[in-house]
């Protein structure tokens, strides 16, 4: 109980006002607040430990998978070179093995990249680089093969310089191209267009694939989200989430537009460095 006295003067007479206040509830509230804080700190410690253990496990699994996958890929290359003329069914079998191996490698890399982003947070390696050269490298490294559509590129003549983590930007653009190839038939179309506009570099990756329902567009960048229409197509629901995080870490933004049965277009806008110049707004394909 809290006791307080307050001197008063009423009609010339000195008086005292006595106030008694029960502080039991206050003390209980303070105890509850302390208990909640301790519980939150404990939960945070457990979560951090769990995340750290997950990272160690992921690194270990990635290492264990990479070695046999590398052996499989190298062995297939050797077999293709040493078997000479092959029947079509043998060539098709080799192609299937290579595609499956590449798919597993990409899945591992996506998981590791997501983990890397969690570690670096806002601490990026920021250096100026030519975006056109990077886009050429992304196209060169894209899947290709007999069952993948050819990637058509439209690039400006002048250099476009952006500042940021070159490796992460490459991962983001490669993910967009890989997605476009996965959801487009071999006789379809995938295009990558790079254009300067004002103080931005605008990258558009368009395809003639199955398209995305309008109702799903707000969710496609959510972590682990996979469209019901993507059944039977390899993926972990991390690719577009990773792309969005990387682009936003660089002060850019990404938008998606799609028409069912006609394809999708992903537009990335990145800030240009001061020495890159502005022309007109690119139009969607």
Gap from first CA to last CA: 75 Å
List the secondary-structure elements in sequence, H or E. EEHHEHEEHEEHEE
Number of strands: 9
CATH structural architecture of the largest domain = 2-Layer Sandwich
Describe the structure.
The protein has 285 residues and is an alpha+beta fold. It folds into two domains: 29-120, Helix Hairpins; 127-271, Heat Shock Protein 90 (2-Layer Sandwich). It has helices spanning 24-82, 88-120, 131-141, 166-182, 239-249; strands at 2-10, 13-21, 127-130, 151-154, 161-164, 190-197, 200-207, 253-259, 263-271. Strands 4-6-7-9-8 form a five-stranded mixed beta sheet, with helices on one face. Helix 4 runs antiparallel to helix 5. The longest helix is centred in the N-terminal third of the chain and has 59 residues, at 24-82. Residues 277-281 have low confidence and may be disordered.
Compact summary:
With 285 residues, this protein is α+β, with helices and mostly antiparallel strands. Helix content is 46%, strand content 22%.
Q: What layout of secondary structure does this protein have?
A:
Layout: E1 2-10, E2 13-21, H1 24-82, H2 88-120, E3 127-130, H3 131-141, E4 151-154, E5 161-164, H4 166-182, E6 190-197, E7 200-207, H5 239-249, E8 253-259, E9 263-271
Parallel strand pairs: 4-6
Antiparallel strand pairs: 1-2, 3-5, 6-7, 7-9, 8-9
Helix pairs in contact: 1-2, 2-5, 3-4, 4-5
Brief descriptors of the model:
single chain, 285 residues, alpha+beta, Heat Shock Protein 90, 2 domains, five-stranded mixed sheet, 5 helices
């Amino acid at each position: 109980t809290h006791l307080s006295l307050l001197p008063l003067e009423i009609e010339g007479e000195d008086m005292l006002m006595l106030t008694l206040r029960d502080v039991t509830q206050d003390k209980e509230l303070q105890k509850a607040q302390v208990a909640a804080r301790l519980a939150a700190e404990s939960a945070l410690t457990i979560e951090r430990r769990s995340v750290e253990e997950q990272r160690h496990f992921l690194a270990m699994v990635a290492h264990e998978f990479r070695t046999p996958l590398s052996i499989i890929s190298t062995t297939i290359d050797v077999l293709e070179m040493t078997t000479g003329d092959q029947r079509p069914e043998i060539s098709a079998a080799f192609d299937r093995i290579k595609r499956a191996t590449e798919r597993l490698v990409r899945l591992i890399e996506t998981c590791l990249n997501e983990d890397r982003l969690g570690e670096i947070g806002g601490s990026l390696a920021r250096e100026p680089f030519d975006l056109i050269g990077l886009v050429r490298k992304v196209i060169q490294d894209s899947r290709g093969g007999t069952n993948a559509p050819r990637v058509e590129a439209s690039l400006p003549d002048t250099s476009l310089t952006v500042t940021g983590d070159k490796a992460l930007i490459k991962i983001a653009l490669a993910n967009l191209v890989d997605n476009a190839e996965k959801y487009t038939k071999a006789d379809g179309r995938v295009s990558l267009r790079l254009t300067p506009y004002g103080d931005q570099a605008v990258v558009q990756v368009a395809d003639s694939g199955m398209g995305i329902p309008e109702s799903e567009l707000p969710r496609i960048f959510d972590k682990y989200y996979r469209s019901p229409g993507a059944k039977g197509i390899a993926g972990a629901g991390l690719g577009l989430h990773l792309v969005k995080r990387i682009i936003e870490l660089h002060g850019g933004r990404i938008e998606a537009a799609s028409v069912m049965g006609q394809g999708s277009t992903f537009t990335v806008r990145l800030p240009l460095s001061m020495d890159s110049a502005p022309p007109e707004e690119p139009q969607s394909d």
